[in-house]
Automatic annotation (TrEMBL):
Residue stretches making up the Cytochrome c domain: 32-163, 182-290
Primary localization class, coarse: periplasm
UniProt keyword annotations, A-Z: Heme, Iron, Metal-binding, Oxidoreductase, Periplasm, Signal
Positions in coiled-coil regions: none
Protein name: C-type cytochrome
Residues that, per the record, bind heme c 1: 54, 57-58
Residues where heme c 2 binds: 196, 199-200
Any one GO CC term of the record: periplasmic space
Record-linked Gene3D superfamilies: Cytochrome c-like domain (1.10.760.10)
Length: 298
């Protein structure tokens, strides 16, 4: 008898693990902090030479990324990683491709300090901001004024508003059976049958577990720009929300189209060669994951 219950619990857990849930309409936020966070997110003064803001690499009208293989920071310096979208990042179980930040506050420290992104340090930044209109704004919200913690607190509060509910697929999940097309329904069925859902599930259809690239078939070094380090790396499985808007793909932006990405990932992660019409249908399904940004919802 107890075994029976354990089995039921196991099945329920597994079903739960393979479920995709819709993005909520909004998250509870502190409006004043959101307004401040929005200013900071778009302000190039956060970078050492006043040239780069968060929005330089996370364009909010372009899928929340920068549509480049790798991003360019201060002094034209390039990194090695593709900029992920900021949209729905509040739902990621960890932040960054390797998951090294536990939450958005911790994440926001990264780009401000990174010498190839904004290249700043907080002592300089705080002195700089205290000479501006920010002094009053911070003092009105935080007892201790402009501090490192308060800067990233406001930014992360703003990021909670960068969510994209009401995608066609979410409407379908909520019961509107006509919200997605027949082809998209077939694409979703293939997505489940082939096992994509075993890694891409949860509210962000990804971003809740780690996986290496090449679970079944190992990509050879230099193919897809793979390095020895990449081969060892455990990547946070990326979210597939709004993925049709965030080309190029993979951690290094090495694949330009969604078709090619689906084909390649299926081979390396599942050892399955998909037929052209299966790829087509999965891509159509992925297109149904484009949600609505705040401006589009009003
Ligand atoms: C120079 C380009 C650049 C700038 C400027 C930049 N980012 Fe990013 N952002 C990236 C890249 C590249 C990554 C991935 C880096 C990694 O995984 O190590 C990233 C990762 C992120 C993530 C994690 C998303 C995920 O799915 O893991 C968030 C959230 C984010 N950035 C927000 C911000 C905020 C907030 C700022 C401003 C304080 C900012 N970024 C400034 C390029 C940039
Ligand atoms: C074993 C886990 C796993 C399975 C199964 C899996 N993926 Fe992924 N997927 C990943 C990882 C990890 C990455 C990121 C790899 C990288 O960037 O190097 C990824 C990346 C992607 C991307 C690119 C996202 C972006 O923003 O760059 C797409 C699209 C994608 N997968 C779709 C699929 C589809 C469709 C299937 C089924 C055919 C599938 N995945 C099966 C783990 C998985």
């Amino acid at each position: 008898m107890p075994n029976f219950f354990i089995l039921i619990i196991f099945i329920c857990f597994n079903m739960h693990a393979n479920i995709i849930s819709p993005i909520p309409q909004s998250m509870p936020t502190d409006e004043k902090k959101v307004a401040l966070g929005k200013l900071l997110f778009n302000d190039t003064r956060l970078s050492v030479d006043n040239t780069i803001s968060c929005a330089s690499c996370h364009l909010l009208n372009e899928g929340g990324d920068d549509n480049k293989s790798v991003s360019t920071g201060v002094n034209g310096l390039k990194g090695e990683l593709n900029s992920p979208t900021v949209f729905n990042s509040v739902f990621n179980f960890k932040q960054f491709w390797d998951g090294r930040a536990d939450n958005l506050k911790e994440q926001a420290l990264g780009p401000i300090l990174n010498p190839i992104e904004m290249g700043n340090n907080f002592d300089t930044l705080i002195v700089k901001l205290e000479k501006t209109e920010y002094l009053n704004i911070f003092n009105n919200i935080y007892l201790d004024g402009i501090t490192q913690d308060n800067i990233v607190d406001a930014i992360s509060e703003y990021e909670k508003t960068l969510i994209t509910p009401n995608s066609d697929f979410d409407m379908y999940l909520k019961g509107d059976t006509n919200a997605i097309t027949q082809v998209q329904k077939e694409g979703y069925a293939i997505f489940k049958e082939k096992g994509c859902i075993s890694c891409h599930h949860g509210i962000n259809i990804g971003a809740n577990l780690y996986s290496k690239l090449g679970v079944i078939i190992d990509p050879s070094i230099s193919h897809l720009g793979m390095t020895n380090k990449d081969k060892e790396e455990k990547f946070k499985v990326p979210s597939l929300r709004n993925v049709a808007k965030t080309a190029p793909y993979l951690h290094n932006g090495s694949i330009k189209t969604l078709n090619e990405t689906v084909k390649t990932i299926s081979l390396y992660q599942l050892g399955r060669e998909l037929k052209d019409d299966e790829i087509y249908k999965i891509v159509k399904f992925l297109e149904s994951l484009n949600g609505k940004i705040k401006e589009e919802r009003k």
